[in-house]
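FW: tagging you since you asked about this chain on Friday. Here's the raw sequence from the shared folder, copied in full. Didn't touch anything.
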Amino acid sequence: MRSFLADLHRRSSVAWRRSILVLAGAALVPVGLAGWLLTNSPESVSAVTCTASWDVDVSGDWSQGSNWDTGTVPGLMDDVCIDRPAADVTVTIDIPADVNSLTATESIVLPAASSLDLAATSEISGDFTASGPLAVADLTLSGTTEWLGGGWSGAVVNTNTINMAADVTLSGSLLNDIGARFEHGAATVS
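HL: got it, structure written out here
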């Protein structure tokens, strides 16, 4: 079994890592990109294991290492959490950000000069303002989203409102939950 798990981890792709493998009543559940957890109740495993968390109660730039609990900017293998209950912060993704996942309860700004690439299931429940390109595996937006340009690829679920203020190109899917709104005014969605 040990060599099977090592081989599975070594050969696994990002898409495979988002899967759950069931083995004789137990399940092998991915934990970030770092490994796997064998459990008999996969539904009880938290989907979010933060490997990098916003560590200050002030707004700031993604690129500033001192804003993170790790002291460095999150990278490809990080599951990023931005949740500051004692403050109302806005994180500006001022450099291209390529991480495993993002779970944010705070406001996120994605300027046109930047990009965000999320390899695994992610959620932004704070407000999201985007001008730059977004590539996602599966993203749920539950705050108010202002789309000012750029485009996205991947699966996006909207549970609140997406306002399109500029033309956008979609290479994926958009699912509006019951009661959610997709407003595009004069913007072209293609």
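FW: The CA atoms of residues 123 and 140 lie 5 Å apart.
HL: agreed, and The two ends are 48 Å apart (CA to CA).
FW: great, closing this out.
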